[in-house]
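U., I forgot to send this yesterday:
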Amino acid sequence: MTLTIPFRPSAPGPTAPDPTAPGSTAPSPATLARGEVRLDGVTKVFGRGASATTVLADVDLRVAPGEFLAVVGPSGCGKSTMLSLVAGLDRPTSGTVGTGGKTAFMFQDATLLPWLTAAQNVALALRLRGVPRGERGDLTRSLLERVRLGSHADRRPHELSGGMRQRVALARVLAQDAPVVLMDEPLGALDAMTRDRMHDEIERVWAEAGLTVLFVTHNVREAVRLGDRVVLMGSSPGRIVTSRPIELPRPRRLDSAGVAELAAELTAELREEGARRGG
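Result:
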């Protein structure tokens, strides 16, 4: 389920972690604007000794409030790990990660509770946020209207198409009132036509709500279609190879010449990086 999950230290103590210490997930929050994301020198290692694997190495990244950042890279380059660190679900081995406000996650699978209706799935997120019972009904209806599912409020997940289920998941993200939204290949399981329509929905909701979005995908053209900026990641270990602003006017189409041309350039960069690393 798409829920805001704050990081909780495994060994609670009387004082909060030092935000300047290596491996912190909350560096200098007073210096971060609402919706801002910052990673400084982030390295993540899984395992120890001979079995240790460096998944991310010395990653520096700034995401401005309201920016739509698309992250592309080969499997195993640490894209999802980076999102988990931003969400506070894990700590970096070294370096610092900070966000200006809460984060909400949207996954490839909508992960709706099957015994609840679309409206009840969204209302649950409002309840967990602490919204009073008397206010939830109107807010739920408003959120479903926002993703154009007002007439499907009483449908259960099995009665909805894949695209509709993802729109319910998007409404549930909005219900959390988080300024930073992390999307981990949320459209990967959809067919091409539904995926194209969801591009429009995500772009519209992002613009209307003023969200900061970190959108992970394997699809370079999708990244160019949606992003204000595209970050290419290399692997072995995961690191940022290129950060490219996308200056094409909106709205964009997947099949437009500008999107196709820029996607081809970025794909060539990924291939060159893979060849240099022997991948």
